[in-house]
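Predict the 3D structure for this chain.
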Amino acid sequence: MLSALLVWLDARSRGDRVLLRLENLDPERCRPDLATAMERDLAWLGLDWDQVIVQSALRAQHEAALDRLERDGRLYPCACTRADIRRAAKPAPDGGYAYGNRCRDRKLPAGGWREVGAAVRARLPDRAVALVDEGGLDLGQHPAREMGDPVVVRRDGAVAYQLAVVVDDAAAGVTRVVRGRDIAASTATQLLLHDMLGLSPPVYRHHALLLEPYGGKLAKLHGAVGAPVLRARYSAAELCGLLAQFAGLARDAWPTRPVELLERFDWARVQRTDLAVRWSHGELVAVE
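Done. Predicted structure below.
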């Protein structure tokens, strides 16, 4: 919810439109009831948006982008598993493991990327990207070497994240992207994909994260509480005030609403370092 709040404040303070994109390309993890719950929770917090975009509805645009990359000779099948990549033990800027581009010389079948029974990767240009985001975060990287060529079609046939978000942003006319620093290491790869597809990239800003005390991102997987628990414990104004305090937008966690934060919203006031928090005795508290 913190990221959604900051996105909303950034856009509304500029008089921009807010787009809610339901990223539902993963057939194993994406369910309509979860999307409905997310919309309900964001509205409960006091956020609104101008348009809802369902990512799966953009399949035609995704395929057109893949066709262009194929025509340009940029696609190849990859049989490497995650275990293969881990065994290579080459650390990547995102904290995972870099792909060593070992399948780069493989060719697509006669029928093209649609007939590949494995993952499909995009061969990135062999060059560095010099980039500092709007908040001053240095995102300079040599993506092909440091991250490896990205998967653009998964083994199960789903269009992969890196390509989908690039195509989706362009299709919706997105000019600004505000997101957590956990995605920052992907930005250089996405800029190269924009360039390969002849698209203009948006302006990026990456905000600090709420982390669990042992360093993992605050997430349900790590035992963090979900929206139903937070809604049972806090009113919308109380939770908004708490998030504002965590973000550095308020000295104390006074009950407030997003619209009340707009007048004084300034990125200069937003905390620039990650904050450790934990659920303790029915309260969400910062950890010193």
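Residues 121 and 151 are 4 Å apart (CA to CA).
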